[in-house]
Amino acid sequence: MIKIYHNKQCSKSCAALDFLQEHTVDLQVQEYLEDVPSKAELIEILSQLGLKPLALIRKNEALFLEKFQHLQLTDEEWVEVMLQNPILIERPIVIKDGKAVVGRPLERVIELFTPRSS
Fold first, then answer.
1. Catalytic annotation on 14?
2. Residue in 100, 84, 47, 5 with CA at minimum distance from that of residue 73
3. What pLDDT digit, counting tens, does each position of 27-85 carry?
């Protein structure tokens, strides 16, 4: 099962979704602006990405620049900010076999399908 947290308004997210639709049949699409992940789900995504919450925030987004850029928040507070303002979550996020990537650039998504040599 492969899952993509998708924003249909984002060209990079659409490119990742197109790639996934061409390369897998077992695909779950979650339009995260309308179907916001739960707190536990977002924390699990962060763990799979190996990122702190602030690293998953779109820092060039107007909302971030207007309301959040000067704040010093805890990781838990940043998670709450993302849950209340999902537009701030970097996109797309693709999860395959317990490993997650932010699909910008698309090559990161492609790497999920590339067998690793030992």
1. no
2. 84
3. 999 999 999 999 999 999 999 999 999 999 999 999 999 999 999 999 999 999 999 99
Question: pTM for the whole thing?
Answer: 0.92
- Residue 39: which H helix or E strand, with range? helix 39-49
Catalytic residue among 7, 8, 10, 69: 10
CATH classification for the domain delimited by 2-112, as one of 3.30.70.860, 3.90.650.10, 1.10.1200.30, 3.40.30.10: 3.40.30.10
What's residue 117's pLDDT? 55
